[in-house]
Design goal:
This protein is an all-alpha fold. The protein is built from six helices and two strands. It has a two-stranded antiparallel ribbon with strand order 1-2. Strand 1 (about 30) and strand 2 form a beta hairpin. Helix 4 (about 60-75) packs across helix 5.
Amino acid sequence: MQIGEVVERVGYSFRTIRYYEEMGLVTPSARTPGGFRLYTELDVYRLLVLKRMKPLGFSLDEMRELLGILDALDGRVLSDTPREELFDQLDTFRAAADTRVQQLRDKLTMAEEFAQRLRDEAAGRSGGSSPAPAAVLHEDAAAS
C-alpha cells in the first residue's frame, strides 16, 4: 500500500511517517518504479506500535529497541539473544508502559479535579460572591 493509505490507517501525517523512516524505525518494504514508498501490513503494525508508545513518552531509542525485540521474537531478524532474555526485555517494556499509564491516569485525575474546581468556581461566582475561603479573601485584601 502507498503512504496515503498508511496515513489513513495509522492516523499519522506523511511527515511523521517519513521522519520515522529517516530515524530507521520503519522502512518501506518496497518502492514503485516511480519511487513511491510501498508498505506492508507489518509496516503498518510497526507504526501502530510506535503510535502507542509515543503518548507514554518512550524515546526513539526505546522505540527502536522494542521493535528489535519484537522482530527477534517473531523471527524477522536473527538474534544471538536467548528467547528467554528477549521475553524479559519485553516484560521490562511492559512494566515501564504500566508505570507510565498509571502516571498519566494520576495526571488525568488531577486535571479532572481542576476542571471540576473551575466549574465550581464559575457556579459559585455567578451570584456575585466568591467560593474561596474567607481567610484567603482577607489575606488578599490585606496584601493590597
